[in-house]
Amino acid sequence: MRPESSSRPTLVSGPWRTLRRRGWVFLAGALLILAVGLLVRRGGDGAAEGHSAASNTEPPQPSSRTPRAGGGATSAHAVEEAEAQAPRYDATTCWRDLERFNEGVSLETFRDWAAPLLASRDPLVRMYLKERLTELIGKDAGRAGQVLEWTREAGPKEFKVFAMALKDSEAVHLPEVARRLVEMGLDAELDSERRAGLLSTLDTQKQLSPEVLTRLADFAKDPASGEGGWAAARTIARVMKNDHERSANAAPYLDKLLTIGTQSLDEHVRYMALSTPMETAPVLDAQATDGYSKVLTTEGSPDGRAAAAHNLALSSDSAQVLDTFSRAFEPEQDVCVRWALFRFSARAAGRDALPVMAKMALVDPRFQPTYQDFERIYASGVVDFERVWLALADQDPYGCLHRD
């Protein structure tokens, strides 16, 4: 990631009904491939089932049949024959089946009707199921609660569809639904991966209350939280971004992320907490500036120290940041952290950082050519950091971009 960039693109999918006309052909093709594949595996039974499916007027039902054993002994010739004998579906047949599902499915029948489709590995099929379930949930807290209960014992594919549908639904913003998500996400009886998925459904919240922030931070610091703790830290950071865009409020979230980043015993959780503020890029107040300054001398992970330098570049007190970077540079042994301190000095103070950068280049002569490059660019009249960065002769002189 380029140091001047503080956000990543997010995939956004619109409601299914707005995509259906454009997506019918692709989804029909995906379901056609799935149907033919299943018919091939079933051998001669496929022709009879295909004829039945084409004339059936009911929405697709889950199949109780299983593929025949002994597939390893099937010759390539036999597979070719079975494929040749399989019935051919045209787009009209697939379109009609999918449309009946779309119009006829309800929340009560969704799980049974979706089961055969979940056997598909096609992401378009899963996207359709997620979008349709999101529509079925709507703004209804009761429906959201029903889907949330499904997640307790759902298999991996089901769980992903259910969690994503909840996350994108309007009901997830209702207080009673959000509370239940927190309670289940922190439920010690659930496995860590499931708890992580549930906590991630809170990412779209507009804000988190002080109580929820405290509970998530305490959970993330718990050595036993595992993947769930990592997800809790990420959720705090993502909601911070939502709240900051809406109200420019980041301080309470930064405080909890700093607490996690300095107190968690899990290096991955600490790095998540220290690095994610880069996505929001808030201006740091005095308390946050002091907190991230301490990270530069206490954090054991070089990646965590580099992330702290990135965040400090947006402090409201650029003079303090330059002093902090100058004192941290010489004892720092990792060249990539030194590179972060060097370039983010320019981001923090612009051309006023050149004296500090010159001193750094004297301490570590490897930075002499890069310093001269910065000096040349500022002398040309360019002052905006992004343009300065793009004008550098080499943006990765020390092979550190994979760590940013």
From TrEMBL:
Keyword Transmembrane helix among record annotations: yes
Keyword Transmembrane: yes
Region called Disordered, residue ranges: 46-85
Keywords: Membrane, Transmembrane, Transmembrane helix
Residues passing through the membrane, by range: 21-40
Top-level taxonomic group: Bacteria
Compositionally biased tracts (Polar residues): 53-66
Protein name: HEAT repeat domain-containing protein
Source organism of this protein record: Myxococcus landrumensis
Upper classification of the organism: Bacteria, Pseudomonadati, Myxococcota, Myxococcia, Myxococcales
